[in-house]
Specification:
- There is one protein chain.
- By secondary structure, the chain is an alpha/beta fold.
- The protein has 20 helices and 8 strands.
- An 8-stranded mixed beta sheet has the order 3-2-1-4-5-6-7-8, sandwiched between helices.
- Helix 4 links the parallel strand 4 and strand 5.
């Protein structure tokens, strides 16, 4: 019997679809699942008549693979990944490759890469984006880990990945250790921000302008034909047109306003704090989901806490255009925060990341695919050392055109009591970044007053630190100096 080109463990929807994708590109795939009945169901169902080998135990699974064996795990992140690594190790040989295609935390991938390499094997942590449709027809894939493993999996990964118009696959090597999963984590953080910004645009038009879902369907559809063209804006237009089969009402209005999350946006925010990089819009998007979960408290509070009643007077069509501009400017800031985080992480973890190349990986297949990713690639091609996307000519000019409308939308929402945390945080990020002076001088004075944390002076070279005896009772000993 012909040996399989790759093996896949985990036959939930993503695993099944990836297996079918690989098989459709001419690869023979061996599959295994801890609940063995799922193997038979798949082989006799969606996988019937295809070059897919079903295995009922790890030994049978490994025996079906051509050397070097390539095993892709599509299991829940966390302990299940470690458990399967331990199950596989006794049956694999030096040079074999274990691939984690789930949403694992990059720190775990760092640890697992070292551990598996210590056993003489190779390890890849691959971020896979695109959901179940992408898995079946072509996802964006962000692999990292053991560099010598890449040539062995490259033909498979680039064959199954989404392609742009010229045939370039949305898959390329990212870097060592957990770099692939880190890039996927930041992708998801940007995704959180992008979704929240779109939701706030919807909410402002709903609560302030009184637009119906059908009217907003037309608005988002038109936006998707311009510079906001993206997967998320496109599906938002479709969602707003969808009618509930039971009630005949717009389905979006029948869905409870509590949002879930699987942790990747939270990881992005936590890591930004860990390495000292501002990513407020991503963080606000995570916090907005937490706030949405307080549904019962919010309902009770709505009866007790006063606030303005939304009331709009003016040109509705003109304001809709301003909301579009606010969404675009805020979206630029969200991506700027994500890429600034990637830049800081590269220095922190010793990775050589190709920022323009990463933008190209997201052009098709993934959830944040958008027209302006090409502009990000152009920005880094023009200046590989670009400190922040906001400084690139295209994005600088785009925000210059949009910021008056952006400010008016945020101010109008605040005056009418409509929460827009992502819009507002993106604007605050922009204003903070463009400010040559911030109030941190007072913060440092406060810190030195109560904790002798020292400060730098505007009339002295950077790196010289001073302490004042504010109360007249302090000594000469100062605290250790550190920065964010």
């Amino acid at each position: 019997m012909k040996k399989a080109d790759i093996g896949l463990i985990g036959l939930a929807v993503m695993g099944e679809n990836l297996a079918l994708n690989m098989e459709s590109r001419g690869f023979t795939v061996a599959v295994f699942n801890r609940t063995v009945s799922k193997v038979d169901d798949f082989i006799n169902g969606r996988g019937a008549g295809k070059q897919i080998i079903g295995a009922h135990c790890i030994e049978e699974f490994v025996a079906a693979l051509a050397r070097p064996r390539k095993v892709m795990l599509m299991v829940k992140a966390g302990q299940p990944v470690d458990d399967f690594i331990e199950l596989l190790l006794p049956h694999l040989e030096p040079g074999d490759i274990i691939i984690d295609g789930g949403n694992s935390f990059f720190g775990d991938t760092n640890r697992r890469t070292r551990y598996v390499e210590g056993k003489g094997l190779l390890y890849i942590g691959a971020g896979v984006s695109g959901g179940e449709e992408g898995a079946l027809h072509g996802p964006s894939i962000m692999p990292g880990g053991s560099p010598t493993a890449w040539p062995h999996v490259r033909p498979i990964f680039q064959a199954i990945a989404a392609k742009v118009a010229d045939g370039t696959p949305c898959c390329d090597w990212v870097g060592p250790d957990g770099a692939g999963h880190y890039v996927k984590m930041v992708h998801n953080g940007i995704e959180y921000a992008d979704m929240q910004l779109i939701a706030e645009a919807y909410f402002v038009m709903d609560r302030l302008l009184g637009l119906t879902p059908a009217e907003m369907h037309t608005v988002f559809q038109s936006w998707n034909n311009g510079e906001l063209n993206s997967y998320l804006v496109g599906i938002t237009a479709e969602i707003l047109a969808w009618r509930d089969e039971e009630t005949g009402q717009p389905l979006v209005e029948m869905i409870l306003d509590t949002a879930g999350q699987k942790g990747t946006g939270k990881w992005t925010s936590q890591n930004a704090l860990d390495i000292g990089t501002p990513a407020p819009t991503i963080a606000e998007a995570v916090l907005a989901r937490f706030m949405s979960a307080l549904k019962e408290e919010r309902v009770a509070a709505s009866r007790l806490l006063p606030g303005p009643t939304p009331c709009f007077e003016g040109d509705r069509q003109a304001f809709i255009e301003e909301v579009r501009q606010a969404l675009y400017a805020s979206k630029i800031c969200a991506y700027a925060q994500g890429f600034q985080l990637l830049k800081m992480a590269a220095g922190e973890y010793g990775w050589d990341l190709d920022y323009g190349g990463l933008a190209l990986l997201w052009r098709e297949g993934c959830i944040i695919r958008a027209q302006f990713l090409e502009r990000i690639k152009e920005a880094y091609d023009a200046d590989p050392g670009l400190a922040n996307l906001l400084l690139a000519p295209y994005f600088r000019q785009a925000i210059a055109r949009s910021q008056t409308a952006w400010r008016r939308v945020v101010a109008t929402a605040v005056q009418n009591g409509i929460p827009v945390p992502a819009f507002a945080s993106a604007l605050a990020y922009y204003d903070s970044y463009r400010s040559s002076r911030l109030p941190a001088n007072l913060l440092q004075a406060q810190r030195d007053y109560f904790g002798a944390h020292t400060y730098e002076r505007v009339d002295r070279p950077r790196g010289q630190f001073f302490h004042t005896h504010w109360t007249g009772r302090g000594g000469d000993t100062a605290s250790t100096t550190y920065t964010a």
